[in-house]
């Protein structure tokens, strides 16, 4: 009898939607990157913090953070999901605004990013790092 091959487990962190979520997500990312031998985690920590902060401030329900390496190109991918109905978009530049620049900054730092809807009303905001 042969064993059925299994897909590797995707490192996942489920967080309560509190102001502690971004800090915990940054620590989770740093631990995952260290385990993979990725020494420069600055952009990853910035991205996971922005996405988790947006989920906390604008989303609903628990926040789920998943971090994995894309099987096609080996680039790290960060996914943050919640049950909020909002759709994150990069806001037009407004020099007078005191917030709202996070997604714009993130979009300039990552290889690509997007939003996808899941069954059950969840949405996932994802970013692939360079």
Automatic annotation (TrEMBL):
Pfam families in UniProt: HATPase_c_2
Keyword Protein biosynthesis annotated: no
Superkingdom of origin: Bacteria
SUPFAM superfamilies found in the cross-reference section: ATPase domain of HSP90 chaperone/DNA topoisomerase II/histidine kinase
InterPro entries membership: Anti-sigma-factor_SerPK (IPR050267), HATPase_C_sf (IPR036890), HATPase_dom (IPR003594)
Molecular function as annotated in GO: protein serine/threonine kinase activity
Keywords, in A-Z order: Kinase, Serine/threonine-protein kinase, Transferase
Location of the Histidine kinase/HSP90-like ATPase domain: 21-126
PANTHER family in the cross-refs: ANTI-SIGMA-F FACTOR RSBW, ANTI-SIGMA-F FACTOR RSBW-RELATED
Designated name of the protein: Anti-sigma regulatory factor (Ser/Thr protein kinase)
């Amino acid at each position: 009898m042969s064993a059925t091959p299994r897909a590797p487990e995707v490192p996942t962190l489920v967080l309560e939607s509190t102001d502690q979520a971004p800090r915990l997500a940054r620590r989770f990312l740093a631990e995952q990157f260290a385990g993979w031998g990725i020494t420069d985690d600055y952009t990853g920590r910035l991205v996971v913090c922005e996405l988790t902060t947006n989920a906390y401030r604008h989303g609903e329900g628990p926040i789920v953070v998943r971090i994995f390496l894309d099987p096609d190109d080996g680039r790290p991918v960060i996914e943050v999901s919640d049950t909020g109905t909002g759709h994150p978009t990069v806001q037009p530049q407004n020099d007078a605004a005191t917030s709202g620049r996070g997604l714009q900054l993130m979009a300039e730092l990552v290889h690509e990013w997007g939003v996808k809807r899941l069954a059950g009303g969840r949405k996932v905001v994802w970013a692939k790092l360079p």
